[in-house]
Design brief:
Shape: elongated
Structural class: mainly alpha
Oligomer: single chain
Protein name: GntR family transcriptional regulator
Number of domains: 2
InterPro entries: Tscrpt_reg_HTH_GntR, WH-like_DNA-bd_sf, WH_DNA-bd_sf
Largest sheet: 2 strands, antiparallel
Order of helices and strands: HHHEEHH
Domain HTH gntR-type: 11-79
Pfam family, one: GntR
Distance between the termini: 32 Å
Keywords: DNA-binding, Transcription, Transcription regulation
Helix content: 55-70%
CATH class of the largest domain: Mainly Alpha
Radius of gyration: 16 Å
Number of strands: 2
Length: 115
């Protein structure tokens, strides 16, 4: 499983790691039932602290994507629904837009300009 982080991304590292793992699951790089490499190995490959990876794995477990089993490590439970994942991102975008004083209509217009 090849994961990459964007060092220019302003989001916390644990969110970036969780997104990278989530994307690997969505793209089929790891399938339901597959075991993930140990957190320490993922941390070494990504150049981050093992606790950062563990926090990401716990977040994904809480989302229902991963399962922790004593003696068996971390396994993929299911693939995320891409539409639901996109919906969550749109919700975050709208929340951020409101912080800057924009309304949902303004965000729609901005999307139309870009696309």
């Amino acid at each position: 499983m090849l994961l990459k982080l964007d060092l220019n991304d302003p989001r916390p590292l644990h969110e970036q790691v969780a997104d990278a793992i989530r994307q690997a699951i969505v793209q089929g790089d790891v399938a339901p039932g597959d075991r993930l490499p140990p957190a320490r190995d993922l941390a070494d490959a990504l150049g981050v602290n093992a606790n950062t990876v563990l926090r990401s794995l716990r977040d994904l477990r809480d989302e229902g994507l991963l399962e922790f089993r004593r003696g068996r490590g971390v396994s993929v439970l299911s693939r995320p629904d891409p539409r639901e994942a996109l919906r969550a991102m749109v919700r975050d975008l709208l929340h951020e837009a409101v912080r800057y004083g924009y309304r949902p209509h303004d965000v729609i217009e901005l999307i139309k300009e870009i696309s």
